[in-house]
Amino acid sequence: MVEIKVKRWLKQSFIMENFQFQCPTRIVFGRGVENLVGEEVKKYSDKVLLHYGGGSIKRIGLYDRVVESLKSVGVRFIELPGVKPNPRLSLVRKGIEVCRSSGVDFILAVGGGSVIDSAKAISVGVPYKGDVWDFYVDRAEPAEALPVGVVLTIPGAGSEASSSSVITNEEDWRKLSLTTELLRPRFALMNPEVTFSVPPYHTACGAADIMSHVMERYFTNVRHTDLTDRLCEATLKTVIRNVPIALREPENYDARAEIMWASTVAHNDLLGTGRIGDWATHVIEHELSGLYDVPHGAGLAVLFPSWMRHVYKHRVDIFVQFAVRVWGVEPDFQDPEKTALEGIEMLKSFFKRIGLPTTLRELGVPEDRLEEMALRCTDSGGSKIGSFVKLGKEDVLSILRNARG
Amino acid sequence: MVEIKVKRWLKQSFIMENFQFQCPTRIVFGRGVENLVGEEVKKYSDKVLLHYGGGSIKRIGLYDRVVESLKSVGVRFIELPGVKPNPRLSLVRKGIEVCRSSGVDFILAVGGGSVIDSAKAISVGVPYKGDVWDFYVDRAEPAEALPVGVVLTIPGAGSEASSSSVITNEEDWRKLSLTTELLRPRFALMNPEVTFSVPPYHTACGAADIMSHVMERYFTNVRHTDLTDRLCEATLKTVIRNVPIALREPENYDARAEIMWASTVAHNDLLGTGRIGDWATHVIEHELSGLYDVPHGAGLAVLFPSWMRHVYKHRVDIFVQFAVRVWGVEPDFQDPEKTALEGIEMLKSFFKRIGLPTTLRELGVPEDRLEEMALRCTDSGGSKIGSFVKLGKEDVLSILRNARG
Question: Which residues pair with residue A76 across a beta bridge?
């Protein structure tokens, strides 16, 4: 891979990182775009797997519109519903079987991040001779994938244009991710109206997920990332402004549109260009939602402020910038740490304001398995997670304990 | 095209526009990336047209590195140097002939916007039976194009990831543009070090071009474009901060890197998603640089503040936002127009500060053909240009006259 060669030239200093960026996913955004799904699918296939979750897409009429559009251009489809939040490996394996036995060569995901991640897992599993879980535990690297298309219903995960998929294995409740360019969907049809019916709590969880995708990239050791710093701040401010509006007025098209587009921009890797992200909070959260099946966004809302308090002294400057530029905190030039802490408090109180838990207690997570989670995500204490500050088992445990409430 | 169908649902109100966005250009960014050019080209072709301008790429050693990289992977090439700023139709036609007669099926542009635009024109001309100029005067639409790759040397035009090409016809000195997704380069190799030798004046011209690409999109009649407003502001602020640094310290990698990446982000269409751009200033400037062969960025620096003063009353709110968020002007709540005008003055004085002309006089453009230019860009006064405010011949003339100085 070219990546290796490029990386040779760096690491000497704190300059902007060399990077590669390509996001070929075709975005079609706006009112009514779900009706174009047949036309878009037809470019790739005549026989697809229609993958979705429960009944919500039927309740809002989206299922009917999608089916009608597919039929109108003669695309046949086999249905595989039943994707749950924190999507399961067993359904992925079933989807792989269905695709193989029926000769399906395209997967259409109609749903949010869970449905899309499940579809992506199926897409790499079908052409692979071994078990798809191999890819998630780093036992194998995928060489090919079926194409995937998306009709997005819940913004947050950003999976509609990302290169990753997160799957939960019910055998041991490990929740693991796979990242490869093969996983970028071919297209994403995004109609903000479809999100009018997303309930307040899930709207807020989506917001925390979007903000976390930005913040995981924002807090970096790389210096001189002026443009991407500002693009990150722009995306955060958009979410902060529009989520309270969408909660007050669920059918406010403009607010829903801003949130939906922000979710894609936050996670298609543009905001990470030239920087090295951290991702420790995501790793810890995956233990949480793997074991307790809590919504990913809610877990992130609990953990992010606690992570921040654990690491902010490592680079007070970037936390001051976060406080001042994102939250409008007036900087305390005599005592920058105060400003840094004020920014963290602003984040926490924003999460509260939009109805999210900010403690493990509120999240309904008991205290008895914190140590187990800290061990699991650090390979029994033998490895470290994160990049901004490398965290060992004791660090993770401390972050979890400080999040108890 | 899907575009037409999507557009049916809009236009009822001021909501965010439906949009499609896809920028498949692969960006490889950082120190040394020009040495990967052979590897990148090889994915597409074994025999390419090597298209460039004058001697500058030889002086800085870039030509040798590119040639060595091509040779190392066995890619043969035919050279076509000689691209001038405001690239000429005659050389495009010559390039088309060279490609046809030698069986070249890939065009490698090593240069700035002029070289890339010329390469793009050749790429659509080769497979077309008629004259390539047909595409620029809307007599025909291109159906196919040869693939184009880029090694970027001057940031500004954004052509490395854009869907457009601007060519000057020396027969009547018309400078016209063509926009189609076929024109997106397959890859762009961007090493900020290569731009260390860009002279101050051309660095500043590039900055004005980048800022103009953002501002053409920013000033829109579409409401509720919160995310893209902020992404635009982020990009402008990055340029405003880093260009003075690059002028003071031409070999400051960080500043050059920020400017280079901003140039791509400003014009790959992300910042236009959901909005309708204006582009009147670009149209007027094309008359200027078509007739007088002035650098595009310098022409824009002269015209943009004049255009702004002509139209700002149409939407004082967005000009206030521009002044406050981009330039840090303290808003005058009692008299918002004052704030709007202050923002325009800030832009003008920034252009002055970085060494650009802000009057036609300084640009060396005489007064005798202003009326002719106003007529030419409005189809002899029969049509209007722009979208934010539609401008007729008298408007254009007024903007030109107010820019005289």
Answer: A47
Q: Write out residues 192-231 of B within 8 Å (CB-CB) of A.
A: 223-224, 226-228, 230-231
Longest dimension (CA), chain A: 68
User: Residues with Cβ < 8 Å from A398, sequence gap 6 or more?
Assistant: A310
Phi, psi angles (nearest 5°) of residue A110: -115, 100
Domain B199-402 falls in which CATH fold?
Dehydroquinate synthase-like, alpha domain (1.20.1090)
The B residues from 32 to 71 touching A (CB cutoff 8 Å) are 32-33, 36, 39-40
Instruction: State the first-to-last Cα distance of chain B, in angstroms, to the nearest integer.
Output: 46
> Do the domains at A31-194 and A198-402 have one common CATH topology?
no
- Side chain identity, residue A352: K
Residue pair B101/B142 in contact by the 8 Å Cβ criterion: no
> Would you say domain A31-194 falls under CATH 3.40.630.30?
no
Q: ipTM, 2 decimals?
A: 0.93
Query: In chain A, which residue's Cα lies nearest the Cα of B224?
Result: A254
CATH class of the structural domain A198-402: mainly alpha
Contact B320, B338 (CB under 8 A): no
Q: Do A224 and B270 lie within an 8 Å CB cutoff?
A: no
Inter-chain touch B227–A274, beta carbons under 8 Å? no
Measured between beta carbons, the chain A residues lying within 8 angstroms of B226 are: 238, 241-242, 254, 258
pLDDT tens-digit series, residues A315-324? 999 999 999 9
pLDDT in tens, A300-318: 999 999 999 999 999 999 9
Cα-based torsion angle of the residue sequence A307, A312, A314, A320 in order, rounded to the nearest 10 degrees:
140
- A238–B253 CB contact, under 8 Å: no
pTM assigned to the model: 0.94
Out of A19-23, A25-29, A259-263, A392-396, least confident range: A19-23
Cα–Cα distance between A107 and A100 in angstroms, integer? 12
| Residue A32 to residue B9, Cβ atoms within 8 A | yes
For B99-158, write each residue's pLDDT tens digit. Answer: 999 999 999 999 999 999 999 999 999 999 999 999 999 999 999 999 999 999 999 999
